[in-house]
Amino acid sequence: MTSRTAGLYDLRGLKCPLPVLKTRRRLKGMPSGTELTIETTDPLAGIDIPHFCNQEGHELVRSEKTETGHRFLIRKG
């Protein structure tokens, strides 16, 4: 299976719960297997995004700390 990439979704500057809500909305319109990279500055995103992926059936492919926040690679389930 070849993964499709939806690119980078810049959520920097947004506070909880907006990163999760906007990520959910963006993923909703994408086909299963598509990968989406998001960047956040909200410190709670390090907890919220992995929990969201687990609850919604998406795969958290990669999670990394950046200088200003977090970067996540999510594969839509």
From TrEMBL:
Pfam families associated with the record: TusA
Gene3D superfamilies: TusA-like domain
Domain UPF0033: 10-76
Family: Belongs to the sulfur carrier protein TusA family.
PANTHER family for the chain: SULFUR CARRIER PROTEIN YEDF-RELATED
The protein's name in its UniProt record: SirA family protein
